[in-house]
Amino acid sequence: MFLLRKNLAYAYEVFLLRKNLAYAYEVFLLRKNLRRKKMLRKITHAALWLFLLFPTVLFAHADETATPTATKMDVNAGPYNLTVEFNEYPINALKSLEMKVTPEEDFEQLTAQYNLIPPSADGKQISGDLNPYPGLDGAWLLYVKGIPEPGHWTWEIEVNGPDGKGTAYIKDFEVTDPPGIPLWLGWLIGLIPLYGLVAFAGFEYRRVKRIAKSNSFAQKSL
Q1: What is the DSSP secondary-structure string of 40-87?
Q2: Residue 77 CB: number of other CB atoms within 10 A?
Q3: Does domain 69-176 have CATH number 3.20.20.10?
Q4: CA-angle at 72, arms to 67 and 77, nearest 5°
Q5: pTM score
Q6: What sections of the protein cross the membrane (predicted)?
Q7: What is the tens place of the pLDDT at every residue in 174-218?
Q8: CA 85 to CA 96: how far, in whole Å?
Q9: Which of 17, 72, 115, 152 has the highest Cβ tally under 10 A?
Q10: Are 91 and 146 in contact (CB under 8 A)?
């Protein structure tokens, strides 16, 4: 009987020791999970702030970007007075340009040609005739399909008529570099690491929550 009681007491002590060890381990896991939760909460807050901040920067930068506008100017081709209207200025390289040229003199008695002189010595000059503007009387249409290189080009507009020949010059016509990828697409690509960080934070949060739930269930079972 004495040995039986002694064994029962020993078994009870072992049971209490195991229970205390399990409880200590549960406390350790809970504290560890709490630290992870705090860290994940900070990461999530930082990610949300970045999501709120970047659109503001994006639109602020977009507001500062120069927007091309239509431009109108008067030039003289010898005895002939011309009004020149560009659909867009400045214009990007490789983009098509449309220009309307309206003479003050009798349109029916005039013919015109143009030369577009490149900024570089090895550039290709663009030349052609000015044709009547579709649907508009008394004006020519000058259309260039894609100006090949950026820089300051020079226009020569030659007009022939009853008073002879005259040439108008438009110098320092600005052609800017071709645009890169859209600004919004650049931000979208640049934020890819942030998307991964948010996904990782969400995965870790669910994992920690699942571990805490299983630990709570194990503690109740004890």
Answers
A1: HHHHHHHHHHHHHHHHHHHHHHHHHSPPPEEEEEEEEETTEEEEEEEE
A2: 22
A3: no
A4: 140
A5: 0.53
A6: 43-62, 181-203
A7: 999 887 666 666 667 777 777 777 777 777 777 767 766 665 544
A8: 15
A9: 115
A10: no
